[in-house]
User: Which sequence fits this backbone?
């Protein structure tokens, strides 16, 4: 296992999800090098692939039983972009405000996300280490 693959597995262990962009930014390498590492990890059975194209993300096998599809998307989005807002979930999945808030509140209750801000300015991000 090379350094990038070890970093990918560490990231998935901490965050729960990783996307190609995370690795490219962390290591300043091209998409093809990262894709090769991710494909090797999937082939070894260490990761499972979700989605196709730019929105593809990777998780540990068997980690899907805890969350629904929207929550998996939220974790992938937060892993790639650093934050997500309720209105993004609403727009992406064509769901109401209460459904989006229920999904986000579930992730907060599991300790996977923290809510920052209030009202329309509220967003959800990964908990900071040591807090």
Assistant:
């Amino acid at each position: 296992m090379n350094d990038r693959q070890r970093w990918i597995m560490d990231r998935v262990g901490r965050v729960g999800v990783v996307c190609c962009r995370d690795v490219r930014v962390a290591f300043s390498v091209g998409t093809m090098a990262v894709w090769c590492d991710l494909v090797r990890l999937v082939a070894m059975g260490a990761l499972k692939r979700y989605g196709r194209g730019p929105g593809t993300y990777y998780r540990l096998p068997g980690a899907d039983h805890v969350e629904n599809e929207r929550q998996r998307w939220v974790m992938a989005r937060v892993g790639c972009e650093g934050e997500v807002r309720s209105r993004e979930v609403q727009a992406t999945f064509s769901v109401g405000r209460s459904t989006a808030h229920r999904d986000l509140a579930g992730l907060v209750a599991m300790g996977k996300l923290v809510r920052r801000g209030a009202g329309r300015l509220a967003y959800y991000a990964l908990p900071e280490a040591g807090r």
In short: The domain at 66-125 is CATH 1.10.10.10 (Arc Repressor Mutant, subunit A). Residues 70 and 92 are 9 Å apart (CA to CA). The first helix runs from residue 3 to 15.
